[in-house]
Amino acid sequence: MEEYKRQFIDFMVESKVLKFGEFTLKSGRKSPFFMNAGAYVTGLQLKRLGEFYAHAIHDNFGLDFDVLFGPAYKGIPLAVSCAIALHDLYGKEVRYCSNRKEAKDHGADKGNLLGSDLGDGDRVVMIEDVTTSGKSIDETYPIVTGAAATEVKGLIVSLDRMEVGKGGKASAQREIQERYGFPVASIVTMAEVVEALDGTVITPQLKVAIDGYYEKYGAR
Predict the structure, then answer these.
(1) Which residues does the annotation mark as catalytic?
(2) Reported pTM
(3) Per-10-residue mean pLDDT for the chain, 220 residues long?
């Protein structure tokens, strides 16, 4: 496992973004772990988060793209912090873009996009916190491709929960790849989290609960 991945796992735990216990997800599933990217709230946390995303984008997609699209609301700070990190780490200048929940009908920046406009030929990397079912991408993809003749180069998330998607067999990330034809990658997978934290943060009792969860909901 790459060192930046180990550092990111520790960072999630230290930032209280990744928690273990008993949680009811939006899907109704009872999960022994939960990730909330909204808990990144300080300048240093956002700086480091952007750097971890930038490393993962570089490693998985390269730097041949023009725009980072972060869907409102949590995707906005992700796109901004990562765009800064791409410039600082790799000298890569990209624009950031997001959607508005409600279109603005006045001013020079009226419309349903925040930040940069999207233009014909723009190559876009979408950035999100976590993909559980893939529902959010079903909402985001039409916005990105409907604004102009764009090319989606990929989707990057921080954590691959490695759960079955809406189809009930393949993972949500694989379902997205097959449905839309662009690659999906993560900074880390839940398997890597368990590997890194097993015996420390993840106790034997918790490991049993995680294993049981994946027997029920894990993608095969």
Answers:
(1) 104, 106
(2) 0.92
(3) 96 97 87 93 97 98 97 94 98 96 54 89 95 77 95 96 81 89 96 96 97 89
